[in-house]
Amino acid sequence: MASSTSPVASAAAGVLVAMVLAAVCLHGAAAQLCEDYYDDTCPNAYDIVKKVLVDAHRSDVRIFASLIRLHFHDCFVQGCDGSLLLDGVPGVINSEKGAPPNNGSVRGFPVVDKVKAALEDACPGVVSCADILAIAAEISVELSGGPKWGILLGRLDGLTANFQSASNLPSPFDNLTILEQKFRDVGLRDPVDLVALSGAHTFGRAQCQFVTDRLYNFSGTGRPDPTLNSGYRAFLTQRCPLNGNGSAVTNLDPTTPDTFDKNYYTNLEVNRGLLDSDQILKSAPEAQGVIAPIVDQFARSQDAFFKSFAQSMINMGNIQPVTDPSMGEIRCNCRKVNDS
Predict the structure, then answer these.
(1) Residue 340 confidence (pLDDT)
(2) What's the confidence (pLDDT) of residue 6?
(3) 77 is in an annotated binding site
(4) Which helix (H) or strand (E) holds 26?
(5) Known binder of ligand: residue 213?
(6) d(C-alpha 123, C-alpha 153), whole Å
(7) Dihedral of CA 170/317/186/297: which sign?
(8) Cα dihedral angle (58, 63, 67, 68), rounded to 10 degrees?
(9) Helix (H, G, I), strand (E, B), or coil: what is residue 101?
(10) Is 74 annotated to bind ligand?
(11) Which of 42, 109, 179, 300 could form a disulfide with 38 if both were Cys (CB 3.0 to 4.6 A apart)?
(12) What is the Cα–Cα distance from 110 to 56, expressed in whole angstroms?
């Protein structure tokens, strides 16, 4: 006679198996992420995530770009630990969602919730929310025409959020020196990482509030940014009029806004970068020695961009992952830490 297993017992068993599998990925004293982390405990995890994303994209063409941005904003704040997904708890957790770079800007949380629910149905207590963001980012790029890469997995979910650190995420208003420093601060010291990861702006949208200064009052001059292509500026003033709705959105890439390709860089070559933090990679005087030549290379070769982007995503995914069970967990709900 077959015995029945309670959901609680199944979840506990799933966590135990995940922890055992983590030990298989150990190298030396520190746990390392690995591509086959869920092969035994949740072998269909990738396909489950992909199905939810494909369904979501049918009603929201922006969702792929939004999901990769969630992964970026998560990893740059105390590492890739799913902290961005946590809702606020008065007196306990000050949610990163309310930090200025995120508030009213980052999106896609309900889709992450659907992915988590689907995974919990199939493999309760096994796949972390931090890993969901990593998987969703890769699938989003691939389904938009971009490269595929081996996703390193095995992260646990963090137990805290960091509002203050989230307030210092790379900004559309940062100059090149500040951008380089913010990347170095999280361990991304190779200039290729900065240029390649910026290429995620080859799809998706940005709010007008992040470009209006370039159009009407660049650096407080009362004039537009002189590096901005005049024809493109005329187009943008129609999309983002002076004193218009700052929350209105416009395409980051005016040529192929929903395709992952090298056009972000070909746009920079002709001064058609939307954000100042994009265009400075090509036009800033301090970019000419190292940064601008990387832009030139990616504008010439999509293969070079794709290879570098894939490696830079792996590099970013390795920022301070939580792998010690005493410091993390597999959340049952990505929006909150598990009950004690």
Answers:
(1) 55
(2) 38
(3) yes
(4) strand 26-27
(5) no
(6) 15
(7) negative
(8) 110
(9) coil
(10) yes
(11) 42
(12) 10
Q: Give the residue from 295, 233, 240 showing the smallest Cα distance to 263.
A: 295
| Domains of the chain, earliest start first | 44-169 (1.10.520.10), 176-300 (1.10.420.10)
Enumerate residue ranges in the chain where pLDDT < 50. 1-30
**DSSP structure string for 268-312:** HHTT--SSHHHHHHHHSGGGTTTHHHHHHHHHH-HHHHHHHHHHH
Between CA 242 and CA 248, with CA 246 as vertex, the angle to 5 degrees is: 105
DSSP 8-state assignment for residue 249 = E
312 contacts 195 by C-beta, under 8 angstroms: no
Buried b (16+ CB within 10 A) or exposed e, 235-262: ebeeebeeeeeeeeebbbbeebbbebbb
Tokens of 120: 């919990």
253 is in an annotated binding site: yes
Q: Judge whether 81 is annotated as a binding position.
A: yes
Contact 124, 134 (CB under 8 A): no
By the 10 Å C-beta count (0-12 exposed, 13-18 middle, 19+ buried), 143 is classed as middle
Concatenated DSSP letters for 128-170? -HHHHHHHHHHHHHHHTT----PPPB-PBBPS---HHHHTTS-
The number of beta carbons lying within 10 Å of the beta carbon of residue 1 is 3
27 marked ligand binding residue: no
Residue 266 CB partners (closer than 8 Å, separation 6+): 255, 299
Type of residue at 47: D
Is residue 333 helix, strand or coil?
strand
pTM above 0.70, yes or no: yes
35 assigned ligand-binding residue: no
**CB-based contact 66:139 (threshold 8 Å):** no
Euclidean distance between the first and the last CA atom of the chain, given in angstroms as a whole number: 35
Q: Tokens 């009362």 correspond to what residue? A: 222
Does 202 show up as a binding residue in the annotation? yes
| Residues taking part in catalysis | 73
Q: Give SS3 for 329.
A: strand
How many whole angstroms from its chain centre is CA 62? 14
